[in-house]
Amino acid sequence: MKNELLKLLSKNARYTVEELAVMLAKTEAEVEAEIKSFEKEGVIRGYKAVIDWEKLDAAYVSAIVELNVVPKADLGFEEVARRIMAYHEVESVYLMSGVYDLNVVVKGKTLQDVARFVARELATIDSVTSTSTHFVMRRYKEMDVELCVAKPDDRGQFWL
Predict the structure, then answer these.
(1) pTM given for the model
(2) How far apart are CA 67 and CA 99, in angstroms?
(3) Could you give the CA distance from residue 84 to residue 104 in angstroms, rounded to a whole number?
(4) Mean pLDDT, the chain, as a whole number?
(5) Among 9, 28, 66, 83, who pairs with 21 as Cys (CB 3.0-4.6 Å)?
């Protein structure tokens, strides 16, 4: 039940305990206890809505910033990752394999705000040796939710 319950919640965190119990063929009490256990153990870290910001006046700019970092002795990448996570402009931080070390998703009101943040804050961290910034032009899918639904034009061609 554990993995199935988590899959259902990751697909739609607004399912009621009653709906989940029916889908899993369990009692509501069993489902509720399992959810509480996941929350207590830190398996479930939070619940979020996926918002299509382009549909609102509150749109923002986001960028994926690749960072090369010199890890600290005995601390590895943890120290710099924790420092980067503390900025409110930072949405996500990932340790990567391959060409660069950390993938940082940054948001701001304008391209200039994001560029300024990268130049003044991220690039100046003593462990950071280089940055490469890629601005997100359009979101098609986020957290497993499609944001752009294909619609046919006058010729019957599908466009997002």
Answers:
(1) 0.76
(2) 10
(3) 8
(4) 89
(5) 28
